[in-house]
Structure to design on (245 residues):
């Protein structure tokens, strides 16, 4: 799979892991669509950065939890960049709380974005992704750690992993691979916010490699799955976590 003139859509890509994935795929030759939900300034700044480097890039506002927004997002990308070859489902929220203390609103928000959002993009991609394309969903290694406070978040990502394995088989005949990447703790605002220095240090010492993951670590795995060397990997969950689990 050559990447000249290929198009990648990355959800939740205005910052953090998503922005790093966008930069990496752009460096690999993809035109990139940067989806964001609310932070237009960061998305536009990333588009400008990539454009200055000679990359075709656009920012597309859409709430992935809404099917109508996702439908319109795909249409916008097709109109401005071309039909999509690679879909990276990165958009997500991480708000931990003990299960018994989780409000209906927090439960609904987690599942709306982390699970419904992936469902919406997968359903759209089933008919609109180019044959021979790639779908990469973001899961989490916290599924394997069973940490207190992560029950709801883990539930959303367990569903994503189930989607990944089944959808890979449902796309038989299209030469589209569907995989998931499950990061361990990664040094992004999403992970660091609300944690004490002591908590962060504890997470950093958990992997045998004795550090937090960096966004570039995850982007490299996504790039592998999106590129020609990942062509024979399908229906899998790759746990990029430094050996923590």
């Amino acid at each position: 799979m050559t990447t000249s003139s290929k198009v990648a859509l990355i959800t939740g890509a205005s910052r953090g892991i998503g922005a790093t994935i966008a930069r990496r795929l752009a460096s690999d030759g993809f035109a990139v669509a940067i989806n964001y939900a609310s932070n237009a300034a960061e998305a536009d700044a990333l588009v400008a950065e990539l454009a200055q480097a000679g990359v075709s890039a656009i920012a597309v506002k859409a709430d992935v939890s809404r099917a109508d927004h996702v439908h319109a997002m795909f249409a916008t990308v097709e109109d401005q960049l071309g039909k999509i070859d690679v879909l990276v489902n990165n958009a997500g929220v991480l708000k931990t709380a003990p299960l018994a203390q989780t409000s209906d609103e927090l439960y609904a928000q987690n599942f709306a974005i982390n699970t419904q959002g992936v469902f919406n993009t997968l359903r759209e991609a089933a008919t609109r992704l180019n044959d021979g394309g790639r779908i990469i969903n973001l899961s989490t290694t916290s599924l394997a750690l069973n940490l207190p406070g992560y029950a709801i978040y883990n539930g959303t990502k367990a569903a994503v992993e189930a989607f990944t394995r089944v959808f890979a088989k449902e796309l038989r005949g299209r030469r589209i691979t569907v995989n998931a990447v499950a990061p361990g703790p990664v040094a992004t605002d999403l992970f660091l916010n609300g944690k004490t220095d002591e908590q962060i240090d504890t997470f950093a010492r958990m992997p045998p490699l004795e550090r937090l993951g960096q966004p570039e670590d995850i982007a490299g795995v996504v790039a592998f799955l999106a590129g020609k060397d990942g062509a024979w990997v399908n229906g899998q969950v790759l746990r990029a976590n430094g050996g923590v689990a």
Summary: The two ends are 32 Å apart (CA to CA). Strands lie at 7-10, 31-36, 57-61, 86-89, 134-138, 177-181, 237-238. The chain has one domain: 7-238.
